[in-house]
Each structure stands twice: as structure tokens, then as C-alpha cells.
Amino acid sequence: MPAQNPRINVVLENSLYQKVRLLAEKDNVSLSAKVRDLLKEALEIQEDIALSVFAEKREKSWNDSEALTHNDVWS
Known about the structure:
By secondary structure, the protein is mainly alpha-helical. The protein is 65% helix and 0% strand. It is built from 3 helices and no strands. The chain has helices at residues 14-27, 31-60, 70-74. The protein is elongated.
């Protein structure tokens, strides 16, 4: 029977594998679940970084004189 979720094979250095294994044991989850959770965290961090860069660019171009007031926007 084919797997429901896509699979990825990853080769890790032994030291990294041992760290992930210890984290999985500590959290009482499988290795694949721990790697999945760590990958999700890493992707969220990357998204946060990208949004921060976007926000910084918007901040630099901000001009108070061109900004709309609350009433301008909601009325």
C-alpha cells in the first residue's frame, strides 16, 4: 500500500543524527516526527525573516504625509 504522505530521504552526519535522536527520545516521538517538526520550525523562521525584510523595506519608504488616517480608511 502506498504511503499517504510524500517521503524524503535525508542523509545526516552522525553527530546531527544523534542530536535529532536525543531530541526525539526526550519528546517521546519518532525520528520522522521530530525531523518533521524541526523542519516546520525552520520554515516558519525563514518566513519570519522574509517578512521582516519586507517590513523593513516598507518602513524605509514610509511617508507620514501620504499616510491615510483611520477615518480615511474606514469611512
